[in-house]
Write a structure and sequence with these properties.
This protein has helices at residues 25-41, 106-114, and strands at residues 7-13, 16-22, 62-70, 74-81, 86-90, 96-97. The protein has two helices and six strands; from the N terminus they run ββαββββα. It starts with 6 loop residues before the first strand and ends with a helix. It is of the alpha+beta class.
């Protein structure tokens, strides 16, 4: 496999991990959007904590993460929140939130950042 660029998409949700490989960045980004939409459709969590612990609202809880790993230490992805919203990020250890422009989805923001 030497010399072949591969993009890995890792989907993490509820203790399960699914991995797929793609040759093209565009295909990997499309897979991230599909997986994120599936996670968002199933995202409905209740607030937790409150009396002793800090209360965490659904928007504060990550119910799924879709990560992209690629050549040149490329690391990026999308976190899907408990209310179905999403946030794109880059990096692995030091994650940087990708700012969404007005009318732009997290997936579009990630595409823009990686292009």
């Amino acid at each position: 496999m030497a010399g072949k660029r591969l993009f890995r998409v890792v989907v993490r949700s509820r203790g399960e991990v699914r991995k797929d490989s793609y040759r093209e960045l565009a295909d990997a980004l499309a897979a991230i959007e599909r997986a994120g939409a599936e996670l968002a459709d199933g995202a409905s969590v209740r607030p937790v904590g409150g009396s002793v612990l800090r209360r965490l609202e659904p928007v504060q809880q990550v119910v799924g993460r879709v990560e992209l790993r690629g050549p040149g230490r490329l690391r990026a992805g999308v976190d899907v929140r408990g209310d179905g919203s999403s946030e794109a990020f880059t990096g692995r250890v030091r994650r940087t939130l990708v700012e969404q422009r007005p009318g732009e989805s997290a997936y579009e923001a990630l595409r823009r950042q990686l292009s």
